[in-house]
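Structure tokens please, single chain.
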Amino acid sequence: MKIKQQALVPNVDRSEEDLDLMRIEILKLLIVYVKSKTSLLFLLFKDEYQDDYYYKNKNRIFKWLNNFKVDVQGRKESLNTILNNNWLELNVKFIVNSLVESLGGGVDILTTLEKSQFVQLMTINKELPTIIKYLNELKDGQPIPKEILIYLDKCGFIWGKTKTYHEYISFIIKQIRLVLKCESYRKIYLKGKNEFIPVEHFQNAEVTQPLKEKFGIQNCLWIPGIYESNSLPLTSGGISISVKGFGVFIQLHSLLKDKQIYYSLDRNELILHEIIHACRECVGSEMFEEEFAYSLSPSRLRKLLSPITRGSSESLLFYLISIISITSDLPSFPRWFARVSKIPFIILTLIGLFRLMRSKQYLNGAFNYLTVKQNISPSTASCILFRLTDDEILMLFNLFKQNSNTGIREIVSRKLEQGIDINQRWSVIVDRFLPSFQNVSKL
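Here you go.
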């Protein structure tokens, strides 16, 4: 299930934010620097005007950066001076030691941070730090090299309907920044005893293998997640939440924190489901969203029927009407009410089933067009469809239904000649999944 929000509301009951979180974030960036020789310190204040805490406390933060002294070969230098003068390479060891000491810990702190999602994301995807820095320094309007677009697509950053390079870069950097600062954001914006979804849960083979084999996505660690039950919709074990200005994150039921399976809830299935929503965030098409999300479910029944609702509002409405329909059978209710209450449930169910059958028919038709008509392998066809908009899937369905002679080569040629919101996505699709068509635009 996917939910969109315009903003997050700071927790008014929280105590004043501790600068320990700032130290931890800097340490994460320094660990990545040591491993990759790439400085991502710009992430601390990138787009800080959209960040409640860093914007409102900017003066306090810069004062701390100036006052925090690092012991550099017998002399004291402010952290701000070292960072602003690009002295990081020569002084990274001293900065790390000073920060660890200020946190009152030792090697244990560094060991813990090594296992954090941000550090693991940048370590497993070895080229990502260099790419993120390159994207940040890219001038507005300057194109992104094809090999970088392909690499990002493999990580799950699908181009979608993005209209400019700047818009695409902004989404990626905000998402990386969210992973870096998720601990700060949790303290500022979330209430209750919530815990992060550990990297091990994202890296479980039952999550990574289906993503790679079915949709061509691997090492997808750029979506942070929490275990928290209080604000989950009644009918859901997990949701993907997209917040304007912050990014996308996952929320799962807290009962799944220590158990992979709790009654009908399966942690691996839910993580997979919500990652699919997050990866298609920029595609901006919802007709087949739940079909893709449930396509990797091990349950045949859920795979067949669960896409009957789209979005949290439809799920909640269906749930409430179902409850009313069931409770109306109790002896305390008159028989006429029991009969009448079934009508909305029956109507909604029939409409949902009709729409579900139609969407499955459209998706299967598009799949058959690629596999039967164009002799594309089923695994490659799934990867292609996952990156298409609703209109493009319907177009392939209509070609299959009409038994059209239009081939995929002709479609690719037309798509590559369209605007940047279409041709960049199709260019990546061709390079990754249709390599024999790489020169099709020249035909």
